[in-house]
Amino acid sequence: MKNKFSLLVVIIFLSFCFSVFYKGLNYSNIYTPNINDKKKISTFEAKDFNSNVYLNSEKIFEEDIFYIVNIWASWCVPCRIEHPLLMELSKNQSIKLIGLNYKDNFDNAKNFINEFGNPYDQIITDNDGTLSIEFGAYGVPETFIIDKNKQILRKIIGPINKEIVEEIKLITK
Amino acid sequence: MKILKIFIIMFLCIGFSYLKSDEKHDDLKNKILKNIRCLICQGQSVYDSESDFASSIKMIVDRKIKEGQQEELIYDFLKEKYGDWIIYDPELNKNTYILWLLPLLLFLLGGAIIYKTIKKKNE
Description:
- The complex is a heterodimer.
- Chain A is an alpha+beta fold.
- Helix content of chain A is 39%, strand content 24%.
- Chain A has 6 helices and 8 strands; from the N terminus they run αβββαβαβαβαββα.
- An 8-stranded mixed β-sheet of chain A has the order 1-8-7-4-5-6-2-3.
- The mean pLDDT of chain A is 90.
- At the A-B interface, helix 5 of A face helix 2 and helix 3 of B.
């Protein structure tokens, strides 16, 4: 009786371990931060790309409209892929596009904009990468949809695609 | 010559005392950086990583320590931005109860079994 009980306990324990590991097989082992938390953007100071003047975040996001913050760099290949979509988004009057130029060389960034077009209403620079941390970003490209209350509605890690553009249009309607 | 020696000794003393005052700052910085997970090369701490993300975090931590912020405040800032997972040492909350209490329960259970076995043998 006692042996049977021990055997049962061992079987239950092994089944539990098996089910935990089996379930774990389907999970990605690469962590991505929770991207659906609505957080208010922090206040910060950033250098304007063209004028080199320091601007306060309240000044950058002063209008009562939706903002799209896009982190980009001239050396980033996926940024070239998403660029035509950003150009398409820039035609939308109900949003303002803010470009955050991440760890880039000024001349290269300028050439990038001249070559592919400028979709941004304003470009701010992040030479040491600390500004993108204020947004909770950890790579490039990343895009943030910010609502009228200056809350981050959605965060897109990696290049945006057509579905995301449609989603942005729908949200900002 | 004697004056030169005195000058060298004085210079070294001033130099070392400067290092000493900076040591405290570096110790705290290294302690914090070793406890932050790099999100680019996962499995490595920010201290060990050379990624762009890690170098930016190192700058932020350095800046915040210089501003006089406490260790916990720096962790809170990073947790707010990236979630609890960025810290290697998880705090006790509703998501980590099992993580913290299971080893203790297993230890108690093991102890009880050993105690019972020994008692039985003695009888």
